[in-house]
Amino acid sequence: MEIRNADVVLTNPGRNYVVVRLETADGLVGWGDATLNGREKAVEAALEEHLFPELEGRDAHRAEDVWQSLYRGTYWRGGPVLQSALSGVDMALWDLKGKAAGLPVHDLLGGRTREYATVYDHCGDDSIDAIVENAEASLDRGIDHFRVNVGDPMGDYLDLDGVVDGVLEVRDRLGPDPELIVDVHSRASPREARQIARGLEPAELFFLEDPLAPEHDAEYGALRNATTTPIAYGELATDPFALQPLIEDGAIDFVRVDLAHVGGITAARKLATVAEGNGTKTAFHGPPDLSPIGQAATVHLDLALPNFGVQELTDYEERYGDAVGEVFAGGANFDPSVGGLDVPDEPGLGIDVDLDAAASFEYERSHLPKRRAEDGSVADW
Ligand code: CS2
Ligand code: MG
Question: In this predicted model, what pLDDT tens digit does every residue of 317-349 receive, in sequence order?
C-alpha cells in the first residue's frame, strides 16, 4: 500500500482546521487532523516541507515505522508543531489501514470494549444560575458529567475563593449525583493548585483538569499527595514520553492528551497502555479546535481501551451550525439515549472530507487570546 500523494488543506467552517490527506497508489484516501490552534501555518509548512517528502513511496501499512522515523528518526523530536504534523499523518495511516482491511479503526485496535464513550459537557458560565441551567439542559440530553467552570475565563476564573466557593455552590444546587469537572487550564502555580484541589474536596469532583502547566510536571506528585481530588492532566503534552513517568508514579488519575498534538492514535495508545497497568484512566482532550477527524480518531481509541474514563464532548452542529457538516461527513455521533459518542462501523475512521466545501471556507489568521494580570505582566491564558 504505497503512499503516492500527500496534501494538507486548511479550512475554516467556523474555526481553522488543518486536514491531512494521504492517497495510496491504489487510490485509497486517508484523513488526519493536524490542527494546532493559532499555529496552523507552521504545521502546514512542517508537513509540506519536511514530513511529506519523507512519506513518498513508503508503505502506508507501516504506521509504527513511520511514527518512529518521523519522531526519533529526525533527531529533533517533540514540540507542538512537529507533533501535530505527525499526529495528522498517523491518523491518516490508521484510516488507510482500516480502509484497506475493510475494518473500523477500533477493530484494528483490539475491538470494542464498550458500546459508547461516555462524555462530559461544557456547562461553565458567568453565574451559578447559568451553570445550573446549562447542567439541567445537559441532563435532558442524557449527559451526567459536566464541566462547571465558574466565572469569565479571561477574568476572575482563577480567583481562588471564587472558584472554590462557586463550585461548592454548584454541587449544592445540583445534588450529589452528577459528576463534576473543573478546568484550571494550566493557570495555577503549584501552591494555588494545592489550595484549589483541597478546597474542592467537599465537591467530590470527577477530576480537576490540568491544574499545572508542563513546566511544572515535577510538582504533580506533590499535588497528588496533598489532596484526594482526582487530577487529570495532559492536553498541552506534545512529548508522549515526558508524560510517562507521571503515569508510572501514579501522580495523575486521568491522562487527557490530545490525539492531534501528542502524536496521533499511535502515541495516545502507548500512554493508555502504560496507564492501564496502574489503574489510571483516560479523559482525552476533545475541544472544538480538534476537527471532526480528530474527534473520530479519539472515539475509536476510546471504544477500544479497557481503561477509558470519559470523553470531552464537542457538538459541532450546536456550535457552528451546518458549516462543519458541509466539510466533514460522518465521524462520531452523539447518542442522547446513553449520553455517549459512537462511530459508525465503517472501514477506517468513518469520516469523509468534501474538498470543494473545505476550499469555500477560507483559512483566517487567528490566535488564542492573550491575557495579562492586573499589574500588566503576561499571564497564562
Ligand atoms: C480547553 C481547550 O477543551 C479544553 O479542555 O482547555 O478548549 C483549550 O483552551 C483549547 O484546546 C486551546 O486551543
Ligand atoms: Mg482543558
Answer: 988 989 999 999 999 999 999 999 999 999 999
Cα separation, 56 vs 44, whole angstroms: 17
Same domain for 84 and 162: no
Asked if residue 331 lies in contact with residue 294, where contact means CB atoms within 8 angstroms, the answer is: no
Confirm or reject: Cβ of 235 under 6 Å from ligand 1.
yes
How many structural domains comprise the chain?
Answer: 2
Q: Which of 289, 312, 319 to mutate to test ligand 1, by most ligand atoms within 8 A of the CB atom? A: 289
Q: Would you say residue 195 lies in a domain?
A: yes
Catalytic residue among 106, 185, 261, 300: 185
CATH of the domain at 14: 3.30.390.10
Q: Give 74-97 pLDDT, tens digit per residue.
A: 999 999 999 999 999 999 999 999
- Domain-located, residue 353: no
In terms of domains, do 234 and 329 share one?
Answer: yes
Cross-strand bridge partners of residue 119: 311
Statement to judge: residues 302 and 259 lie in one domain = yes
| Annotation says 157 is catalytic | yes
pTM of this structure: 0.97
Q: Which atom of ligand 1 is nearest to the CA of 209?
A: 5
Residue span of the structural domain in which 184 resides:
107-347
Compute CA distances 139 → 114, 144, 145, 308, 336, whole Å: 22, 6, 9, 21, 9
Ligand 1 atom nearest to 38, measured from its CA: 13
